[in-house]
């Protein structure tokens, strides 16, 4: 049963497709794009010198030495040891390890790697030794962008050491991208010889699949991640009256990215611009298996699982070929008329992990803060972790925005009222940004409610915690049967919550 052991999620990367810091920010190749000044204002030298915080180490100093002379607060923080916890601004491509101890009682974890992006090798070297990740037992890919699969080639040594092929679960569109980028991984005749190639077994999954992978129940959550255009050539019949060659035309289509729900406890959506209604139903009825979910448009699921069509892709069978064991059958959760989950407090979704690129602006292929919060309002998780943020907003600024939601007032004074201001080099810009977020995002009235998002959050979701995630953070959800009781609560983060700060790896400034 999936719930007998605690499930852990270890953040390998929480950044964008480029990762942070951006080298041109460090080299000041473009000192500070004007386009960003409405997101976080640049404190120019004169303003900085008048700032009451000008003396604080880690503040931008245009005449100083590297890295204090870098204007972008986020990229500077990532490399400046004088910025408190500035290393949290060093972010790799989004990806994580989801793991659980194996059921055979040997105490060893089995590790499911979600996405293998451009920064995989670097992130693995940073974190795996401290986390004790010694094997990669299966891989899930979200979509066919470089930041999700360009690190596949670095799995070769893992395959050799483990002495078996690694199963990779991905949808058909992503598989086709892999075939284009790494032909030798799907067809050994394309390898030039002499070098090792990763031994991978391709497992094509569908948008509404439910699987069990290394003892973890995985429900696929298909979402849109921007749109792309593909060319269509009209059929000859439609242009038969004309002698001209049929003209190709471009048709827009949403790019499908896969989110996942693990053991009905953790929802992970790394790249999203909109969520189809069928996926909402799966999330709101999270305790239903696919086969009993009224929302599923096609039959579930593990039985649909098929290997990739290319016979040369079929490599030696690994020890842990996924079984077709369905997930636990638990009565579904009612959904009330406003489409929100009716779950009792004890049955709250423990963790939502969701894409939020910028606090103030929308984006064509990623959620903004506003969209991420609206998802949290509908799902009502106990904890929401924001991922995928980019510069110039810093981790400290995201923390301050999140704190402002959970405290009285909604203004800087509101924050001060409870905990007092934290001294930080980003303080002045952060104060500006938090006020701007309340003015532009959290205060404007939503729909017919007559209330702003911030007010709705406090009334509706007041006991829910929202935080920015960081590379190296470890989360843990105890088993539902209470098997984890008795563990020292001091090992957890503040308030005995889901954060395992004792396991979390603090990043190094380089
Ligand atoms: Zn930057
Ligand atoms: Zn993408």
TrEMBL record:
Residues 111-283 form the Metallo-beta-lactamase domain. SUPFAM superfamilies: Metallo-hydrolase/oxidoreductase. Residues 284-341, 476-510 are annotated as: Disordered. Residues 486-503 have a biased composition (Basic and acidic residues). Residues 288-303, 316-326 have a biased composition (Low complexity). PANTHER family: HYDROLASE C777.06C-RELATED (PTHR42663:SF6), HYDROLASE C777.06C-RELATED-RELATED (PTHR42663). This is Metallo-beta-lactamase. It comes from Kwoniella dejecticola CBS 10117.
């Amino acid at each position: 049963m999936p719930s007998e052991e605690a499930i852990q999620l270890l953040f390998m990367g929480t950044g964008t497709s480029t990762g942070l810091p951006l080298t041109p920010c460090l080299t000041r190749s473009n000192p500070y794009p004007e386009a960003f000044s409405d997101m976080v204002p640049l404190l120019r030298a004169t303003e900085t010198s008048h700032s009451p915080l000008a003396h604080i180490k880690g503040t931008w100093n245009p005449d100083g030495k590297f890295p204090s002379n870098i204007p972008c607060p986020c990229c500077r923080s990532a490399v400046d040891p004088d910025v408190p916890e500035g290393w949290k601004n060093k972010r790799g491509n989004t990806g994580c390890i989801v793991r659980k101890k194996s059921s055979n009682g040997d105490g060893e974890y089995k590790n499911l790697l979600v996405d293998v992006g451009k920064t995989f090798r670097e992130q693995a070297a940073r974190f795996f030794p401290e986390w004790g990740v010694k094997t990669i037992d299966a891989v899930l890919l979200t979509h066919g962008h470089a930041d999700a699969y360009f690190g596949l080639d670095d799995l070769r040594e893992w395959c050799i050491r483990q002495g078996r092929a690694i199963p990779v679960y991905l949808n058909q569109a992503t598989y086709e991208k892999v075939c284009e980028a790494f032909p030798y991984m799907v067809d050994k005749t394309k390898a030039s010889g002499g070098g090792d190639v990763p031994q991978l077994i391709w497992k094509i999954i569908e948008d509404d699949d439910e699987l069990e992978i290394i003892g973890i129940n995985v429900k696929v959550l298909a979402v849109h991640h921007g749109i792309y255009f593909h060319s269509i050539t009209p059929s000859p019949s439609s242009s038969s009256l004309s002698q001209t060659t049929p003209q190709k035309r471009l048709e827009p289509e949403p790019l499908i990215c896969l989110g996942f729900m693990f053991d009905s406890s953790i929802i992970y959506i790394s790249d999203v611009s909109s969520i189809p209604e069928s996926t909402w139903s799966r999330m709101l009825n999270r305790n239903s298996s696919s086969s009993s979910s009224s929302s599923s448009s096609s039959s579930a699921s593990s039985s649909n699982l098929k290997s990739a069509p290319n016979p040369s892709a079929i490599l030696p069978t690994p020890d842990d070929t996924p079984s077709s064991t369905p997930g636990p059958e638990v009565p579904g959760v009612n959904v009330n008329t406003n489409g929100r989950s009716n779950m009792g407090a004890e049955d709250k979704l423990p963790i939502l992990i969701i894409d939020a690129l910028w606090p103030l602006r929308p984006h064509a292929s990623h959620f903004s803060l506003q969209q991420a919060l609206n998802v949290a309002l509908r799902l009502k998780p106990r904890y929401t972790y924001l991922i995928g943020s980019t510069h110039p907003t810093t981790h400290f600024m995201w923390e301050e925005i999140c704190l402002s939601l959970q405290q009285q007032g909604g203004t800087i004074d509101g924050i001060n009222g409870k905990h007092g201001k934290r001294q930080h080099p980003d303080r002045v810009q952060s104060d500006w940004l938090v006020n701007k977020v309340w003015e532009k995002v959290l205060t404007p009235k939503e729909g017919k409610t007559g209330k702003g998002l911030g007010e709705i959050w406090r009334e509706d979701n007041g006991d829910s915690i929202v935080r920015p995630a960081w590379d190296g953070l470890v989360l843990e959800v105890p088993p539902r049967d209470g098997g984890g009781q008795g563990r020292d609560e001091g090992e957890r983060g503040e308030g005995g919550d889901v954060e395992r700060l004792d396991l979390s790896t603090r990043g190094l400034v380089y």
